[in-house]
Automatic annotation (TrEMBL):
<keyword id="KW-0378">Hydrolase</keyword>
<dbReference type="GO" id="GO:0046872">
    <property type="term" value="F:metal ion binding"/>
</dbReference>
<keyword id="KW-0255">Endonuclease</keyword>
<dbReference type="GO" id="GO:0006284">
    <property type="term" value="P:base-excision repair"/>
</dbReference>
<feature type="domain" description="HhH-GPD">
    <location>
        <begin position="39"/>
        <end position="201"/>
    </location>
</feature>
<keyword id="KW-0004">4Fe-4S</keyword>
<keyword id="KW-0540">Nuclease</keyword>
<dbReference type="InterPro" id="IPR003265">
    <property type="entry name" value="HhH-GPD_domain"/>
</dbReference>
<keyword id="KW-0479">Metal-binding</keyword>
<keyword id="KW-0408">Iron</keyword>
<protein>
    <submittedName>
        <fullName>Endonuclease</fullName>
    </submittedName>
</protein>
<dbReference type="InterPro" id="IPR011257">
    <property type="entry name" value="DNA_glycosylase"/>
</dbReference>
<keyword id="KW-0411">Iron-sulfur</keyword>
<dbReference type="GO" id="GO:0004519">
    <property type="term" value="F:endonuclease activity"/>
</dbReference>
<dbReference type="Pfam" id="PF00730">
    <property type="entry name" value="HhH-GPD"/>
</dbReference>
<dbReference type="InterPro" id="IPR023170">
    <property type="entry name" value="HhH_base_excis_C"/>
</dbReference>
<dbReference type="GO" id="GO:0051539">
    <property type="term" value="F:4 iron, 4 sulfur cluster binding"/>
</dbReference>
Length: 230
């Protein structure tokens, strides 16, 4: 890793100046955040919103309600999010975990069941919950200070020349965490949301809009795009 504390602080300031506070994660309740963290796997957020709307219309937005629902009803609600049978199993697994932890009625009370590291370890043992999903639940649903790393984050950092494309989730997370104020949930929330905004709309996988990027003056990839012949 080649990024320094000052690099990530600079990136955060540039993106915040450009787009401001993102008010992310869009959800009415902490449990809805948890559901969204499962459903957003391998799909666009617009599809997640459709699935969540169906769950709400079917009165299934609750731990016990999801566990008591039949497969056909639950899968029908999740259909817009894709891989709906897989996600139904994963959502049931998360709900079963919350029930076992005594958090069925108030899922956000999970944060009181142990230290962050222990909660993360438990979440990673739940079927279908990987690092990004676990950290999204910890940060956005439970308001615990941990940086979420996703494909946007890796793409942006590698294009800046701060890591290689083969960087692991843990390596990049540690690098970013070293630049952030310990315990600052709001900053981690905003930084992740701003990186998503940049990755979705400017730093795209193909044909990125480098000339519009607020990070272009320090971006190795962008400098290469501006050379004659590119």
């Amino acid at each position: 890793m080649t990024a320094s504390v000052n690099d990530w602080q600079w990136l955060y300031r540039q993106l915040l100046d450009r787009w401001g506070v993102q008010h992310w994660w869009p959800a009415k309740t902490p449990f809805e955040v948890m559901v969204g963290a499962i459903l957003t796997q391998n799909t666009a957020w617009s599809n997640v919103e459709k699935a969540i709307a169906r769950l709400q219309a079917a009165d299934l937005m609750g731990v016990e309600k999801i566990l008591a629902s039949n497969d056909a009803n639950l899968e029908s609600c999740l259909h817009p999010s894709g891989y709906y049978r897989v996600k139904a199993r994963r959502l049931r697994a998360l709900c079963a975990f919350l029930q076992e932890e005594g958090c069925a009625e108030l899922p956000e009370s999970l944060r009181e069941r142990g230290a962050l590291a222990n909660l993360r370890r438990k979440l990673l043992q739940v079927h279908g919950v990987g690092e990004e999903t676990a950290d999204s639940i910890l940060l956005y649903a439970l308001q615990l200070p941990i940086m979420v790393v996703d494909a946007y984050t890796k793409r942006i950092a590698s294009r800046l020349g701060w890591c290689t494309e083969r960087v692991t989730y843990a390596e990049l997370q540690r690098d970013i965490e070293s630049a952030l104020v310990p315990g600052d949930v709001a900053m981690r929330n905003e930084l992740h949301a701003l990186l998503v905004e940049l990755g979705k709309n400017i730093c795209r996988p193909r044909r990125p809009f480098c000339s519009q990027c607020p990070l272009r003056r320090r971006c190795a990839y962008g400098a290469g795009q501006e050379r004659p012949g590119n």
